[in-house]
Design a protein that fits this description.
Dihydrodipicolinate Reductase, domain 2, 43% helix, 5-stranded antiparallel β-sheet, Rossmann fold, alpha/beta, 364 residues
C-alpha cells in the first residue's frame, strides 16, 4: 500500500462539536486511508484554556486523553502535552502552511485574527463558527471571497444549504426567494405549540432534551436565525449588515437582563399569546413558523403564518428546511430538509468540508 498523504489540521475549539469532530476523525481513519489515501493529522488543538501542539500530529492516544479531559471540564493547558496560550493566532502563525486546514468550531469572535493569519499563509479554512462571517461586512468580505474557505455548517449543520446556494448562484440562475426554518429548536417549539403544548412547557422540554442553549434566550431571541440568514444573503453577494435585518424576538426586550432562572419562571406569561397565534393559524388553515425570509435584497426574521400544504407548513419536529424559489424552481421550490442541529450532525458537516478541501481544494 502506498504511503498515506498527511493532511495537517489545526483545530480551534474543543467543545461539543470539536470533540465530536475528533471522535469522527479517529473512528474513520481506516476508511479515509482506504478510500482516499489520506490521514487527517491534528497538529494543534487550541481554545481559550490553552493549546496542545505536535508538528507531526498528535497521537491518537493523546487526542483521546484530550477528549476525556475536556469532557470532564479540564483545561488543555493542564494536559501533560498542553500549555497555556491566550492567543490562538499565535498557534496558527507558528504551525500553518499552505497544506494546513484550519478548522474553527468555536462560537467566539476572538478567532478572526487567527483566520486572517491562516489566509496569509495560504491555508484552507473550515468554519462552523458563524461570527467571523456575520461581523461588519468589511471584515467578513475577505473571508467570504477566499477560495479555500468552506462554511457549510454555519447555516444547516450537515444539510447542504450553502453548497446549493453557491451552485444556483454560480450558474446565473435567478434566485427570487429563499425561505426557511433555520432553527431546529424553534421548529420543535412551533410544532409543540401546534399540538397543544403550552409554549413555556415546550421551552422547558426543549431545554431538558438539549435542543436549546443553556440560556434559551439565545434561541428565542432569533439572533442565531438572523446570523444564518445573513450568511445566506452574503453568499448571494448582498452587502448587508446584521443591523439591516429586522429580528422578531419571542420574548419582551426587558427580559434580556434577567437571570436565566428569572426568565424561565416568567415564561408562562407568554403562553396565551402563543395559544392565540396557534388558533389564528388554525382558523386560516395555516401553520405558525419562525422563518427567515430572503428576497429582493432584504432579509427578515420572525413568526409567520404559512400555508399548511407548503413545505414549511408540512414541516414537523426539529428538522431544518430551506426552500429555494428560483428561475427554474418557481411554482415548486427546490427544498432541502434534514437535521439542522446537534454536535454530531454539525461535526459530520465539518468533516465533509475538511475532506472536500483535502481532495478538491479549488472546487466551488
Amino acid at each position: 500500500m502506498s504511503e498515506l498523504r498527511s493532511i495537517p489540521i489545526i483545530l480551534l475549539g474543543l467543545g461539543g462539536v470539536g470533540r465530536a469532530l475528533v471522535e469522527q476523525i479517529l473512528s474513520r481513519r481506516a476508511y479515509h486511508a482506504r478510500r482516499y489515501g489520506i490521514r487527517l493529522d491534528i497538529v494543534a488543538v487550541c481554545d481559550s484554556t490553552g493549546a496542545a501542539v505536535a508538528p507531526q500530529g498528535l497521537s491518537d492516544a493523546d487526542l483521546q486523553q484530550a477528549l476525556a479531559h475536556k469532557a470532564a471540564g479540564g483545561q488543555l493547558a493542564d494536559l501533560p502535552f498542553g500549555y497555556y496560550q491566550s492567543q490562538v493566532q499565535h498557534v496558527v502563525d507558528l504551525e500553518a502552511t499552505a497544506q494546513t486546514i484550519v478548522v474553527d468550531v468555536t462560537a467566539s469572535p476572538a478567532t478572526y485574527d487567527a483566520l486572517r493569519v491562516a489566509q496569509e499563509r495560504g491555508a484552507s479554512i473550515v468554519l462552523a463558527n458563524k461570527l467571523p462571517l456575520t461581523g461588519p461586512i468589511e471584515q467578513a468580505r475577505p473571508l467570504l471571497r477566499y477560495p479555500r474557505l468552506r462554511y457549510e455548517t454555519t447555516v444547516g449543520a450537515a444539510v447542504p444549504v450553502i453548497t446549493t446556494t453557491k451552485r444556483l448562484a454560480a450558474g446565473g440562475e435567478r434566485i427570487d426567494r429563499i425561505q426557511g426554518v433555520l432553527s431546529g429548536t424553534l421548529g420543535y417549539l412551533m410544532t409543540a405549540v401546534e399540538q397543544g403544548v403550552a409554549f413555556s412547557k415546550a421551552v422547558l422540554q426543549a431545554k431538558k432534551m438539549g435542543y436549546t442553549e443553556p440560556d434559551p434566550r439565545e434561541d428565542l431571541s432569533g439572533r442565531d436565525v438572523a446570523r444564518k440568514a445573513l450568511i445566506l444573503a452574503r453568499t448571494l453577494g448582498w452587502d448587508l449588515e446584521m443591523s439591516d435585518i429586522p429580528v422578531a424576538s419571542l420574548f419582551p426586550e426587558e427580559w434580556a437582563s434577567w437571570s436565566v432562572e428569572e426568565f424561565l419562571s416568567e415564561l408562562s406569561a407568554l403562553d396565551d399569546d402563543f395559544y392565540a397565534w396557534r388558533d389564528t393559524a388554525r382558523a386560516r388553515h395555516e401553520a405558525l413558523r419562525y422563518i427567515a425570509d430572503i428576497r429582493e435584497g432584504q432579509v427578515k426574521v420572525g413568526l409567520e403564518f404559512v400555508p399548511l400544504d407548503s413545505p414549511l407548513g408540512r414541516l414537523r419536529g426539529s428538522d431544518n428546511l430551506v426552500a429555494f424559489y428560483t428561475e427554474y424552481y418557481a411554482e415548486h421550490p427546490l427544498v432541502l430538509q434534514g437535521r439542522g442541529a446537534g454536535v454530531h450532525a454539525t461535526a459530520a458537516g465539518v468533516l465533509s468540508d475538511i475532506l472536500e478541501l483535502a481532495l478538491f481544494p479549488l472546487v466551488l
